[in-house]
Amino acid sequence: MTVPAAAIPYFTDAVERALAVAGGVELTAPAQVSGIDGRRVGRRTGNALEFSEYREYRAGDDLRRIDWRVYARSEQLMIKLFSEEIDPRCDVILDHSASMASTERKAAAAISLAVIFATAASNSGFSLNLWHAADTFRKDPAPASPLLWDFPPFETPFSPSANPASFTGQFFRRGIRILVTDLMGPDDPAPVLSRLADGAKRAVVVMVLDPAELEPEPDANVLLVDAETGEERELVLDEGALARYHERLENHRAMWATAAASRGVLLLPLSASDFCPEIRPDELFRAGLLK
Amino acid sequence: MKDFFFGFEHSLLLWCAVPVVLVLLLLYLLHRRSKVRVVPAIFLWDRPQASPNSGTRLKFRLPPAIFYLELAALLLLTAALAAPFVSTPETFPPLAVILDDSLSMQAKVPGGKSPLESGANFLKRELRSLPDRRVLWIVAGESPVLASDGNGRTDFTPFWTGQAASSDLAAAAALARRMARGCELLIVTDRKPAFDLAPDTTCFSEGAPLGNSTILNARRTAGRIMLEAANFSALPLDATLILNPGELRTQLQLAPKETRRIVLAVPPAAAHGAVTVRLENADAASNALLCDDEVVLEAEDDSPVTYHVAAGLPAAARAALERVLNGNPAFRQTLTGEMPDLDILPAEAESLSPVHLFWFAAPAKNTSPANPPQDNQAGVAAPSASGPLSPENSADISRGLPLDSIQWSVSVDDLPGQTLLRSGDVPVLSTRQNLNRDREIFLNLDPARSNITHHPFWPVFFQNLAQTVRAERFGPARTNLRSGELLHIRLPRGAQSLTAVRPDGASMEIRAMRGQADFRPMLHGEWRLESGDGKWAVAVMALSAGESDLSGAGPFRREADSLTVMPFWMLRPLAWAFLLIAALLLAAHHIVLTRKGGGPC
User: Nearest CB to A224: which of B32, B37, B54?
Assistant: First the structure.
């Protein structure tokens, strides 16, 4: 079920704040990617009209690409290379699981990140897809216009990592894929990371956590309710319980970091407080995602 | 059901517990309700079963404040619910115990027990079986006294001494009925009561008709002691009367049941002090009561009345006074600076003496002392008596006055106070007590036109006046009295209290009311009284013919038809069982909560 984005109370504010920041920001393309519609050309040779370079003939090359004029002058078989015509692409996947809205700040930060990435990609001339990872992966019809997003609420009872098979669409091939999520699921990271990295030029997982999740405060009697499963646990949040929580959280993040590294996926942990209410995208620049 | 909630005293606890429980419930719900916190990954948190700090079987966490609230509420509820099973002072009718405090309660043969001792043992046994009963204690002497209203346990032994000259059990029973409506009576005495016992009255008597020798009456007047000795035994009495000081012995033989009067002379050495007379009986078996064998007698105060005649009295009145007072040993004129016992003065004068004789002596020009004349109307005839003299009210001062053939001429038409003597319609002698409790005597007499100063009325009147003045002096009204009789003591001006030292050395403080202290001395012997500058002695005698004659004493038992027993008092341990169960349940509840999820904090 989707609802008008404006119906989500913090959505408009988050989008407007992110748009204000992302106006002059571009998405950094991977080093091997350049050119768009003749403005950027791929490093590989392709079928574009623009000459790229010569190289010696190697067996198997298309004889039609031999520059016979050069052969006439130098008796060397040189292959005329034309630059490959590349259209840079970006898939932004936003996790719509309920855990993303465990706090309003976290939800607003996730929205802001998605807007920043989408706007930056648009600013850079990327072909852009915005995927809402809810019960299924659904492509947004207006990815470059965040205020018009057909935005489902953060109510999905599982995270993308729990059911990567629910994605039946197609990411851009050889594009940049950015998943905005919190990775707060007990699932095996391998399937979703593989799904994200396969065929991508660059895969990034932005892990957004609220400060209340990073540093929960001690409390007396607390009924913890899982945002997605609804499971309840009544605990006293004393120092011992918090220490064990921190230990488990670090192990969880380390597991994802290891799994991401092994698949060439960049895992970028971020705090929601850096994106709500003030947006400070320093980490994104530092990580080379934006420029 | 109504009785369950309202019919017992502790229902108040129940109603106190209800709001406490409501508040507790509210607090409990608010306090015990965990704060809900939504988390994105609950798998990162402890499972309660595995949380080592959430409590184990061996680790009991410090009970929180709410635990004590729960405990208090449970205790209140338990007490309230257990109350119907616990007897309370108000659950059953109060028990009024009437203690016969007469002398005969002390009677006993050597080695035996007196009715008082037997009664005390009986009462202790009885009260042990009525642990929570409200018990009123009424001491039945000459007049009944409520010694304790039963609000709290009382030891009866200090005020039950058996010293009174008589006991009015019927009046004590009436007092008990007035003090506690619906109460049951328990009478402890030494003989069967002389009145019909109500069905709810229990009576215990362990008396016995024992022989006794006694001094029945004693009086001391003008150097003589008049005694009345009696032998209330079945055997002849061979006894000795011993008078002290001086150890003067007088042998006495009395036949069984004989009563004899004896007159003894007071030794000159003891003319102004106390004397003691003891009846010594060698046969202890025929003398069950020892306290009535001895009397102490103080000297009566017969010192002359000091008087002062005011200069304002008419010459005729002064002459009449000189005629009757000069040479009268009962009167003495005051010395300079001495406070007179009697001030004789014209109307409207002021005096500080305890007795004032206001003499309306001059022929009056007004018709009433309340309406003084406006001017000097010389030559106006004075009112005269309009009829024969007649007594109207009885008083010491008017007792025995010869009234025949008196020519009485009055000075005014009316007198203040209570009229004692009237001439026709005109009061001629009246008396009253003023606010200072001074005795005021009003004499309406014109001596110049009366023959009264030559009539026997005149000296007799002043003899009565001397007695009246002596009675009005500061100090005790009487110096010798029977135990239990009411003693009035007129205190010196300004004194607020009286200190009475008993024969056994103990002292008691008695507060004064309007310059007078009243109390009933019980212990026989010589009492010392002090108040301000005044010091006096009074002798209290344990004399009573009715009490000394023990022939009417005897054992008597009567159980009340419907003496309420308290069947539930044995269930009192149930209340403790309730408390124990409540405490165990609470502790178990707390442990379970603690083990479940950290418990209340």
Answer: B37
The answer to whether A236 contacts chain B (CB < 8 Å) is yes
Chain B contact set for A209 (CB, 8 A): 40
Distance from CA of B53 to the nearest CA of A (A): 7
Q: How confident is the model at residue B592 (pLDDT cuts 50, 70, 90)?
A: low
Q: What pLDDT does B394 receive?
A: 80
Q: Say yes or no: B34 contacts chain A, CB-CB below 8 A.
A: yes
CA-to-CA separations, B544 to B99, B139, B170, B338, in angstroms, rounded: 18, 18, 18, 42
**Distance (Å, rounded) from C-alpha B87 to C-alpha A285?**
86
Answer yes or no: do A219 and B35 touch at CB < 8 A: yes
Q: Within the 211-230 window of chain A, which residues sit less than 8 Å (CB to CB) from chain B?
A: 213, 219-229
Return residue ranges of chain A for CATH 3.40.50: 5-29+88-286
Cβ neighbours of A40 (radius 10 Å) = 17
CB-nearest to A238 from B35, B39, B53 is B53
Per the CB < 8 A criterion, the answer to whether B562 and B199 are in contact is: yes
Other beta carbons within 10 angstroms of residue A142's beta carbon come to: 12
Q: Do A226 and B51 touch (CB under 8 A)?
A: no
Q: Kindly state whether residue B40 falls inside one of the protein's structural domains.
A: no
Residue B49, in any domain of the structure = no
As a CATH number, domain A5-29+88-286 is 3.40.50
> Would the pLDDT of B110 be above 80?
yes
Nearest by CB to B598, from A99, A231, A234: name it. Answer: A234
Which residues of B fall within a CB distance of 8 Å from A224? 37, 39, 42, 45
Distance CA B171, CA B100 (A): 11
Query: How far is the C-alpha of A67 from the C-alpha of A79, rounded, in Å?
Result: 6
Q: Which of A213, A227, A233 sits opposite B48 (nearest CB)?
A: A233
Partners of B52 on chain A (C-beta within 8 Å) are 240
Query: Of B445, B472, B499, which residue is a domain's last?
Result: B472
Instruction: List chain A residues with CB under 8 Å of B50.
Output: none
* Residue B547: CB atoms within 10 Å: 28
Domain count, chain B: 5
Residue B40: which of A102, A222, A234 has the nearest Cβ?
A: A102
Q: Which residue of B has its CA nearest to A225?
A: B38
Residue where the block lists tokens 């319609």: B425
- Residue pointed to by tokens 């009565």: B464
Find out whether B461 and B357 touch, Cβ atoms under 8 Å.
no
Residue B499 lies in a domain: yes
For residues B328 and B443, membership in a common domain is answered with: yes
C-beta atoms of A102 and B51 within 8 A:
no
Question: Residue A241 corresponds to which tokens in the numbers above?
Answer: 């319980």
Number of residues that this document lists for chain A: 291
Q: Among B10-19, B210-219, B248-257, B311-320, whose mean pLDDT is lowest?
A: B10-19
Non-local (6+) Cβ contacts of B467 within 8 A are B396
At residue B105 the predicted structure's pLDDT band, cuts being 50, 70 and 90, is very high
Q: Which residue from B minimizes the CA distance to A159? A: B40
Among the listed residues A233, A3, A10, A204, the one whose alpha carbon sits nearest the alpha carbon of residue A106? A10
ipTM over 0.85: no
Contact B46 A100 (CB under 8 A): no
Q: Mutual orientation of helices B572-597 and B65-82 as an angle, nearest 10°?
A: 150
CA of A17 to nearest chain B CA: how many angstroms apart? 25
CB atoms within 10 A of CB B272: 11
Say yes or no: B236 and B248 in one domain.
yes
pLDDT at A90: 92
